Structure formats: C-alpha cells, structure tokens
Amino acid sequence: MLSKREKDLIADIWARLTPVAEDIGSDALLRMFATFPGTKTYFSHLDISPHSSHLLSHGKKIVLAIAEGAKDISQLAVSLAPLQTLHAYQLRIDPTNFKLFSHCMLVTLACHMGEDFTPVAHAAMDKYLSAFAAVLAEKYR
Asked: Is residue 32 a contact partner of residue 87, using CB atoms and an 8 Å limit?
C-alpha cells in the first residue's frame, strides 16, 4: 500500500510534528467536533473547549499514537492492538469516527504544514491515516 519512500516521508513528518502534538491533535479534534457534531457525544465528560487541558491532553495522545505507528507501519496492527481493544470494547466508539477524524487530521496537517504538505505528502498521509483508521476498526468485525 505504501512505498518505502512514502513510509519514510510519513515517519519524517510525524517525527517533526511530535513537539507540537498538543496543538495538532486538539486542532484536529476541534475540526471534527465542528464538522461532525455527533462525535462530541464520546467526550461529554471532558471539557472540549479550545485550549482546554482535556482537549490538549487527548489531542496529544492521539498524535503520539499516530506518530508511534508511523515509525514502523508494517507493525501497525501490533502497535495499535491495545487501542483497538480500548476503543471497541471499553469506549465503544463508532468506527466511522476514525475515518472522520482522519479527514480532519489531513486538513489540520495542510493548515499547519503549509507548502511542506505537498501533493506527495498529502497522498502518502491519506493512505497512512486510512490504514490507521482501518486497523483501529478491525476489532469491530
């Protein structure tokens, strides 16, 4: 699905973005909540207002998980196994939300990275985030 060049590009992008994980993650979450308001129901127990500690913390966790998976994409199912179980059996998140979030993350990356988010980077990241979402949804089958 991803060439070696694309895998290297994705790993490089996420390595550069981890220092701003809170900003990227919270921005992507806010985009998802604004665009798909139904997704807020899973966060009713948290303060999801802009710049809240809950939103920044959860956004950072998401970005760090995405970045960790990008280090070795061939092992994505192994590295995401605990998150699969958590989201499917404990949190019971609708797996459609993973796709919605992936789209919002692409928009966030485009805004944050500007000209560095080239068409090649966009295509590679879209493939990676689609794979990430698909792996998270595997426990639902």
From this structure: no
CA dist 5 and 91 (Å) reads: 35
DSSP 8-state class, residue 90? I
The residues, ordered by sequence, that sit 6+ positions from 29 with a Cβ below 8 Å of its Cβ are 48, 55, 58, 59, 62, 101, 104
Do the Cβ atoms of 62 and 70 come closer than 8 Å?
Answer: no
Q: Tens digit of pLDDT per residue, the chain (141 long)?
A: 799 999 999 999 999 999 999 999 999 999 999 999 999 887 888 888 899 999 999 999 999 999 998 998 888 888 877 777 666 566 677 778 889 999 999 999 999 999 999 999 999 999 999 998 888 887 766
Q: Is the pTM of this model over 0.85?
A: yes
